[in-house]
Amino acid sequence: MDDAGSNHSLASSSEKQQAEDLQGTKTSQCSVTTVYKAYIAGGARIVTVVWSKTLISHSLSVVIDLKPWRPFWSKKGLKSLELENHRVDVYWDLRSARFSSRPEPAGGYYVALVCDEVVALLLGDSKKEAFKRTKARPSLADATLISRRENVFGRRSFSTRARFGDLKREHEIVVENSISGMAEPEMWISIDGDVVVHVDNLRWKFRGNETVAVERTPVQIFWDVHGWLFGAAVGLGHAVFIFKPSPPETTEASGEDDRQPAAAVVSSSMAPEFCFVLNAWKLE
């Protein structure tokens, strides 16, 4: 087993800086980052959409192939940039957006990326309004959702909702822990109210994976809670959970060979498949 202070912990220098910033501001900023592959300006592009929420505001950011727009603070607008001699426009209308406790709207909005009079990426449920405003036609090649990453904050319980790739509906995900106190720490992961993963003796099993069935589809669940257990000394307190709806290579975690940091799963050189990443920041 790795030593608690080894360099195999999940935290990178950027994550350490993020933790320091969070502690310095004492403001819990929840965020959701979705990554899409879309056909824009004559080629396949990576589009990253970030929804952020603080106690007082929401914001939206869009990045295309590392070319960012500044965050969109107004409820309706249009911004443009040049991409390889092509103009790319992003239209958004959040005036009727319905927000809950999560960073991204639950409905009543649209965000549309338009290039060469084609809507390359369309988010939200107000699609009719988006096409009317942009005066553009739908793309012949649908954008593909590659990954989704969410930051949530809590003490003993962390919850969110997510759709696993092409599966039909959203599912409620709850991660609970009993790290505080004198008892041996444990962890539970529930999907739609059913406990699908229970890890006892968490100090010895802080990294691992199991496979569960969701809508009759195998979903691999990877966890890395090193930061919860051993991160306090270096200013970190977050864990990473990855939900990957793909055929498993192994049926269960067994032995130290399976205890690789969860970040290694995301950066795998395998063919791209959808994964949902949950960063659970533990507040003291």
Topology diagram in text:
Elements lengths: L12 H13 L4 E11 L2 E11 L4 E7 L2 E2 L7 E8 L2 E8 L16 E6 L2 E7 L2 H8 L2 E2 L5 E11 L2 E6 L8 E7 L9 E5 L2 E6 L7 E8 L2 E8 L1 H5 L7 E7 L17 H5 L8 E8 L2
Parallel strand pairs: 8-9, 10-18
Antiparallel strand pairs: 1-2, 1-10, 2-3, 3-4, 5-6, 6-7, 7-8, 11-12, 12-13, 13-14, 15-16, 16-17, 17-18
Q: How would you describe the overall organization of this protein?
A:
By secondary structure, the protein is mostly beta strands. It has two domains: 110 residues, Beta Barrel (Lipocalin), CATH 2.40.128; 136 residues. Strands 4-3-2-1-10-18-17-16-15 form a nine-stranded mixed β-sheet. The protein has a five-stranded mixed β-sheet with strand order 5-6-7-8-9, covered by helices on one side. Strand 7 and strand 8 form a beta hairpin. The longest helix is centred in the N-terminal third of the chain and has 13 residues. The two termini are 27 Å apart. The N terminus is likely disordered. InterPro entries: DUF868_pln.
